Amino acid sequence: MSVAKGSNKVVYPAGCKELSDELGKDELVRRLKLLARAFQDMGQDDNIEEYSGLAISLATDFYMDHQSKDVRLLVACCIADVFRIFAPEAPFRETSLLKEIFMFFIKQLRGLEDPDSPTFKRYFYLLENLAWVKSFNICIELDDNQEIFCNLFQLMFSIINEKHSSKVRNFVLDMMTPLITEADAVSQELLDIILLNIIEPYKTQNRVAYNMARDLLIRTSNAIEPYIQAFFNNALMLGKMSESEVSDRLYELIYELNHISPSVLLAVLPQLEFKLKSNEESERKAVTKLLAKMFSDQGSNLAEQNRPLWNCFLGRFNDISIHVRQTCVSYAQHFILNHQETYKDIVEQLKIRQHDPEETVRMEVVNTILSLAKKDFNSITDELMGFIKERTLDKKYQIRRDSLLGLGQLYKKYTFSERVDKANQEKVCWVKDKVFHAYYQNSNEDRLLVERVFNTCLVPYNSPVDEKMRRLLLMYCTLDDHAVKAFNEMLKHKNTVKNLVHQLVDSFEQQQGQGNVPSFNPRIAALARSLPESGKSSDHLKKLCQMLKEDKRMRQYMKLLVGEDCTCKRAQELVREVLKKLGSPAPGQQNQFYNTVKLLLERVAPVMIDASSINMLVKHVDETVRGLGIITEGIEDAAEKGVRLLTALSTVYPYYFKDEETYQELLTFLKHEDEAVSDLTLQIFINTGRKLQAELPVIYSSLLPILQSTAKLGNPKQSKHALRCINIVCKNKELIFGQIFEHLKKSLNPESANYLTSIVALGHIALYCPEEFSAEMKNIVSKVIVKELLMQDHTSGPDSVESWYSEHHVTEETMAKVQAMKLLVRWLQGIKSNANNSGTSTLRLLFTVIKHEGDLMERGKVNKPELARLRLQAGCCMLKLAEDRCYSELISQDQFQTLALLMNDSCYHVRLNFALKLHKGLLSLKLPLEYMSIFCLAANDPLRERRAQVKIFYQQNINKRREYLKQTPAIKGRMFHFMPDYVIPYVIHLLAHDPDLPTHDDVTALKNIKECLSFVMEPLINKSEDYNYNFFRRMLENIKQTKDAEDPDDEDMNRKLYSVCDVALGILNSKPSNITLKDSTVEPVLPAKLFTRPDKSYSNTKSYLPKEFVIDGPKRKGQTNKGPSAQEIIVESPGPVVNPLPVCPREPKRKKKATTTQAQTMSDSENDSGGEEEVMFKPVPDGPKKRGPKKKDKATQDVYVKPKPRGRPPKSVDSPAKRGRKPKQVEDSGESDKITDSSPDVKSFSSSQDSNSPKPKALMESKRGNTQQSKTKKKKVSQESASSSPASSPRRSSSESPRRGNVDSKSVNKSSIVNGTNKGGAKRTVKSDSEGSGNRKRKAVDTSTERPPVKRGRPPSNKAGKALTRSKLKGESDADSDVGSPNRATKQLKMDQFSTKTAPKNVRRAKVLANGTSDGDSPETDGSSSPSKLDTLSRMIQTVGTEEESGVKRRVRGKRK
Q: What pLDDT digit, counting tens, does each position of 726-775 carry?
């Protein structure tokens, strides 16, 4: 080491001895202490120059590298004092020496690490001296100062800890701060040392170092800002990743710096906006997470200060990346908690994200809101709660589960809290309803979830009995109607499962000691269907059964658990014991068997209700009934609701009602002034009173007089329930009924106040005791009920133009007639025989009521609402009788068909209630399968909601019957009574006898029948694993081999039957895109009462459908008709099968062009030449082609060239508009109408339709192009062999591309004539696919009328007596728009279409008959002259009648008389 030059003379302060290398350690330390003391006492004013030599001698290797730390420490203190007293000029001149000295200082400062060290004070003095004098500032002038600073900073951050006082930390900061603020530059290495301490893991490991780095950044923010900005600019914008240790922690650094000193990031934050739009998902996610934290931090004003960045951040809620969206949603709770000013923006984004297509994002929305609710429920608004409410209906079970469980926890927390907060209670008051609404879900997971939420949150099962019943009563009284139904259904489901387990355990008990083990598969299958994943659950239940069989103790536990004496506390213990037997799964592992059994135990264990719970609940209800209860204070009809809860529980848990005190309180309910309370109490006794007479005679003796009095003097409902209670409770019921019967006979006159009660009571007595009162009842029925009541009209109701009104407006006589019809049914149900033709006579009477629309004697005294009620009741009574086999066989087909027409009644309430009654009977499997065919008529209902509801009914019946067949293997021999597919013959027979089907070839009626058939066939064949094409086809073909059993010789009726069969066959072949054939060995069975035996001696392959009736083929989205696919199966059979994708060979296309003038000339010349050929073509949609999703286009057909017929052209055919769909163009069925079978019978049948006319010679194909924008159009014609049959040259399927189509030149815009929209008589030019077809010419059209642009689909028409629905009116306005404005329909046109006697839009086509003449009248004449406008109009509207009074195009009662 070099020594500073200067005077070689070393001067020591007074009292200090000379230092030398030869001194021992101790002596050296002693002398250094004296020297250090002397330097410490010196000031800058003293004569210090003489000590420069001493200072230089101290800064030698001997002292600074001495092995004794005490020596080094004392020397460091002396040199530090030298810097102090020599300031500002130190005696050290060489830069290398200065560097060594400061590196020496840094090494000595490590002694600060341990404040408990005895030498810490001297180290502290050294730090204080260096900090106060700012000695390290001298290094700023050195070239390699950054090395010194880095070592110093690194040391300080590493030694600082919690033991250091604030003085130490402040001196360290005082020493370090000038090195940044006064330095010319800050190196990246030094910056890294500082920044590393503010990020993890250093931030957590050494919190004191983090605080010191934070304070240092705050003190030096202005000086260090440019270096930080330069670092982030290089890293973020330029992508220059230096060797910095924090280069991969940029976003974490930005967050911490923003938290510490936001000012240093003023120029950095705008750069993040570009990063938010990066193409890298990971980068967008990282920046999004960073900004979410920065924006949502408490006290952050960043959103207000940087609105562009905030708006850009909000855009990430709609990011294409799932993880980015999820990140945004997860931080939403922090915004709402800390920044209410951002609430609107954040909630708006959450509203969108709760409908996110990705389930994880929707789940995150739910979890975020629930997490926020747990932290601060006051910040939760009704809007946010609504988001969770909506997610309870999510398609994913996991989201529904989390939503319901979260809501349940909130309900529990804020409803049962000790400190009641009304505002918070109102936020969750709807939760209980929403939970029970989830019970309407079909999945077992949802139902089990509702039961779990009910037991744990809504009414916690582990609460004390008094508190538990109080909460149950309060909850039930505040449920809405739908939730109440779900609650009752939940009780029934739990009871059903419990009974199944009880039967299973009893079976094991009964089979002990016997060799043969019974088959428990039916019960196991039934239990498995009540659990999630029934397949796996079935295996687990079999394993459980094996355990129950082998383990007697476990079997005993299960028997006690499902027994009638099990209490709630005992049930919890038994569940724990059973689960202990199964063995609990290890933590973190899943045991599916364990979970399945646990779910089963949750359903069967009576943890909520036992005998003590019922007693307590009855006491609470008693207080409510007497008006003393504070539980239900302020709740409307609380008494009735409380008793209704008891009624629901008595249905499921009758064995818990066994305490005498409970029954005493129930007796007081019977005397309550509220009729609803007493009536419900009667039902409780009905449910629980079977053993009452034997076990509680005191209660029985008090109950009987009340029952007798109620049966005689109560209202009809109370009397009914009182008699039913007597029937159950009393053993000697015949004697009691006899006393009541005698009293009721005296009141059986219209003047009596108990007239209605007497009718109802007599009916129930006849049901319960038919033999004892048979003679008297027969006399009452014949003389009083029928002759004096049903056949008389003494009063008439109030005048009303409505078709229905509420029950309190109905006259007493009509109500008596309604109850009288019910009496007849109950009387017949009691006798269960047709003795003396009682059943036949009753059915005939009910049939007459329906046939005469409710007016049995047709006197016309009863008003419309009461007539509707009477015919509805007659229909319901017939359905009730049809449930009994002995009466269902008596119902004739005429009566059945009249009954079925109630489905199309003109009164909405009749249709509604009749459908509900029909559905109820069918779903219980009481009504025969024949009655399911009535649902087909619902296709004619004018209301879409009603059609949808009936379709749901129909689908539920299909599922019910198929499930029943699977569960009941023994029913195979009578499958045709239950299999839903066998409804088709009944439907066909019913529709064939439709009063609206005058002839078998009535196109309008057939289209209506097609809708009805589609209504019932689609659920059977679409997406059904049970669908068998062969079976359906064989069934329909067999029907065509039979005749109508009612009148086999009626050829007209047989043709109707065959015509309906052909429609069904067409639907069968048009619905599926690919026909899958299944082997079927089952021969379809046809009902003998409807059809004769099939005649196998011939094959009825004739098509009975008119040519103009076309059944649309299958729709294929996004495909053009390029022939059959590889999977297409074309079936060859003797029946008229429609190939959905016909194919014919193509020949080279002609490329001739023809202008519109040439086309018109061709049409004109055709009128003059009688022997020329005529071009038959189909409508082509006008207007420009549009790219995009292909729309429904059923009008695309090929062009046929046919000889021009002699005589009058054919008559146009009306095409009624379809309900709720776009109108479709009527398509000519051609000569074989899509018959593609290759069998000889089919070919002969096809050719027989046009045996004398030449075969088509050319197949014209329309070119895809813009028919609206161009004046001319290219035509491409493919030739076909002259000898080809119609079957080998079928027309194009209607599933072809919507860019193709044809124009019907025979179409006349009748509506424009009627409305006066056709201005002038100028000729119109027709652009069609037949232009430029060589020498082939077209027949001239009426030039006095202007043809509107033809839309895709069929043009609607208004059949006589049929009004248009709103959806149909919209469709017609699209199809009948004006030529000048092809995309606009005038308001006047819409009104005229809906007015009386509106002419339907007709599509006219020449149909060539075998003799060469037309098949009907036509407004066009055979010759060159054209008919006048008036003649054309008169012919067009001659078939149009007046609209129905109801204003809807549907069949109504009056039409069917």
A: 999 998 889 999 999 999 999 888 889 999 999 999 999 999 999 889 89
Question: For the segment 1287-1327, what is each residue's pLDDT rounded down to a tens digit?
Answer: 333 333 333 333 333 333 333 333 333 334 343 343 333 33
Q: Rounded to 5 degrees, what angle do the CA atoms 1277, 1278, 1284 make?
A: 135
1173 sits in which H/E element? strand 1173-1176
* Separation of alpha carbons 58 and 101, rounded Å: 10
The pLDDT of 432-451, averaged and rounded, is: 94
* DSSP 3-state of 1049: coil
532's CB contacts (< 8 A; 6+ apart) are 443, 444, 445, 448, 599
Give 1396: exposed, middle or buried? Use CB within 10 Å, 0-12, 13-18, 19+: exposed
d(CA 649, CA 1326): 76
Residue type, 1419: P
List % helix, strand, coil for the chain (3-state, nearest 5).
55, 0, 40
Place of tokens 């101790």: 26
Say how far apart CA 126 and CA 105 lie, in whole Å.
8
Residue 69 has a CB neighbour count (10 Å cut-off) of: 12
What's the whole-model pTM score?
Answer: 0.70
Which of 611, 735, 721 is CA-nearest to residue 675? 721
The residue ranking higher by pLDDT, 1380 or 628, is 628
Q: What would the 3-class secondary structure string for 661-725 be?
A: HHHHHHHHHHCCCCHHHHHHHHHHHHHHCCCHHHHCHHHHHHHHHHHHHHHHHCCHHHHHHHHHH
What are 226's two structure tokens? 């440019």
Closest CA to 684 of 708, 712, 652, 713: 652
Count CA atoms closer than 13 A to 1113's CA, side-chain side.
29
Query: Coil, strand or helix: which one is 907?
Result: coil
- In angstroms, rounded to a whole number, what is the distance separating the alpha carbons of residues 1044 and 1056? 10
Confidence of residue 798 (pLDDT cuts 50, 70, 90): confident
Which amino acid belongs to residue 486?
Answer: A
Measured CA to CA, the distance from residue 562 to residue 502 in angstroms comes to 6
Q: Which two tokens stand for residue 58?
A: 């101290």
Give the 3-state secondary structure of residue 973: helix
Query: How crowded is residue 1155: how many other Cβ atoms within 10 Å of its Cβ?
Result: 15
Give me 91's structure tokens: 């005696």
Distance in angstroms (rounded) separating the CA atoms of residues 564 and 570:
12
CA distances from 855 to 46, 254, 876, 879 (A): 135, 87, 16, 19
- Kindly provide the b/e burial profile for residues 742-754, where b requires at least 16 CB atoms within 10 angstroms of the residue's own CB: ebbeebbeeeeeb
* Whether the Cβ atoms of residue 253 and residue 247 lie closer than 8 Å to each other: no
**Other beta carbons within 10 Å of 400:** 21
Give the distance, in angstroms, between the CA of residue 671 and the centroid of all CA atoms in the same chain.
48
Tell me the C-alpha distance between 906 and 965, whole Å: 37
Residues 1342-1374: tens digit of each pLDDT: 333 333 433 333 333 333 333 333 333 333 334
CA 314/CA 316 separation, integer angstroms: 5
Which structure tokens are listed for 330?
A: 């997860």
Pairing of β 1273-1274 and β 1173-1176: unpaired
Q: How far apart, in whole angstroms, are the C-alpha atoms of residue 622 and residue 526?
A: 39
CB 1205 within 8 A of CB 1412: yes
SS (H, E, C) 1372-1424: HHHHCCCCCCCCCCCHHHHHHHHCCCCCCCEECCCCECCCCEECCCCCCCCCC
What angle, 0 to 180 degrees and rounded to 10, lies between the N-to-C axes of helices 755-768 and 697-713? 130
- Compute CA distances 1001 → 997, 1008, 1052, 1053, whole Å: 9, 12, 11, 12
Q: Is 143 helix (H, G, I), strand (E, B) or coil?
A: coil
CB 1449 within 8 A of CB 1364: yes
Q: Residue 1085: how many CB atoms within 10 A of its CB?
A: 14
